[in-house]
Each structure stands twice: as C-alpha cells, then as structure tokens.
Amino acid sequence: xxxxxxxxxxxxxxxxxxxxxxxxxxxxxxxxxxxxxxxxxxxxxxxxxxxxxxxxxxxxxxxxxxxxxxxxxxxxxxxxxxxxxxxxxxxxxxxxxxxxxxxxxxxxxxxxxxxxxxxxxxxxxxxxxxxxxxxxxxxxxxxxxxxxxxxxxxxxxxxxxxxxxxxxxxxxxxxxxxxxxxxxxxxxxxxxxxxxxxxxxxxxxxxxxxxxxxxxxxxxxxxxxxxxxxxxxxxxxxxxxxxxxxxxxxxxxxxxxxxxxxxxxxxxxxxxxxxxxxxxxxxxx
Length: 285
Prior knowledge:
This protein is an alpha+beta fold. It has two domains: 7-160, Jelly Rolls (Sandwich); 177-280, Arc Repressor Mutant, subunit A. Helices cover 41% and strands 20% of the residues.
C-alpha cells in the first residue's frame, strides 16, 4: 500500500514489484492491510512504526522489514525526519522456485522475523537491485536484474525464515485456533464467488462463536474486520490477475466482486498506490 503523503515510484519485472518512497514526515498512517506477496523492505532514512500480529515494531535507518504473504500490518512515520525506504514485493511462485533451487523441494518458506538489524549487506543488495531496475538500460540487462533479485531473495530466506530454523514459528501464524480456522476458510473460497453471498452468520458458525464474540475476536487477532479482510484478499487476487492473465480490467473487476470499473479503480488505487492500468503496465509476473 502506497503512502499518499510521500513521493513514490514503482518498478516491475518478472515475479516482483519494487516500490521506492521518499519525502517529508507525514501524518497519514497506513490503515491495516496486507499483500499477496512476500515483502522485503530496506529502511534507508527516517523512522517508522508498524503494528504486526498485535505487536508494535519501530524501524530505524539500516533496518530490514520482512513480511509474509497476507500478513496484516499498519505503518506510520515517527518523529520529524524525512523518510526513505525501498520495498520489494516478491511473487510467491518466484520465491518458492528460488528456494527449491537452493535447498530442494519443500513447503513454502515463511519469515520468522519482522525486524532485522545490522545487515548492511542485505540493505546494499536491495539498493543495488533498485538502482539496476530504475536505470535507463534496465530492459537490456535482464540477466543482471534476475541475478540481483536472486541475491536479495535467497539472502532473506536463507537467513531469516524457517528454512534456517525449522522449529521457529512464522510471524504470520494465528495463535487463536478458531479465528485461524475462519481465515483459512476465507482464503479457500473460490474467488469467482460473489462476496456478498458470504454472511456473518456463516463465518461465526465456522468459528463456533456468537456473532458478537466472533467480530470482536477477529478484529483483535487479525487486525482488521472480516469484511475488510475479504475485500483486501479480493484486491490481491485482482492484482495478480492484472499481471498474469489476458482478461480485461472490467472482467477482473467484476470477478473480484466490484460493480463496475470506476469503483474497482478507486479501491485498487487506495490499496496499491496506482491505477489498475498502471499496475498492469509493470509487466507480467
């Protein structure tokens, strides 16, 4: 999700999206949200705060932030310093492919740390990838971009995921068993199903809780309401389709449960920081 109060630039390539944000401290925090990709972010300047899994994290210059797919988080600048950070969104299929190349077939990796400090080499690798992708001759340097991307992703996963420490829990693990069951249920739904057919009674029944207790527990544990979670999930699925299918934007919008192109474009822009057509123009995943 892009910060409306910062200057931002997006770059895309096969299996990834790169987002660079700079600017003066702003007072507009990011609302709870998530993405369908792995997130690897280098904090280059300024100070940020982020709520993840019920905990408040503070990020300083030189820190690296790691998020798993569909991990709910917020974000807000802290203090008066200008901020500068580079965020790499890595497609799940690309990440799994790189992991299989390095360690053999296994389940999808999960980051086990949110904040990583003192890893100058990882920050440098992220910065090098950004500089390469934004260069004028980047289209002719595909192999170099792929190598730089592989360097960042393999470094992050081999050092800070359950590949290194299999017994450590994912930072995206939901400890509340009944709410975790509902989240899995929502994720398993066919994206073509009309979202308006999903009722609160149905979700509360899956959780085996009253509607009142279910709503309260879901918001506390997940960090957003069931409706917001479902809408964000649909936007993530739509984003993937925009860069991996030949369907029109209107078809994708209707498939995601939106009534028309304009309402989808507004919601997508709030979530991604760019219009559907701009995101599609970043190239195929």
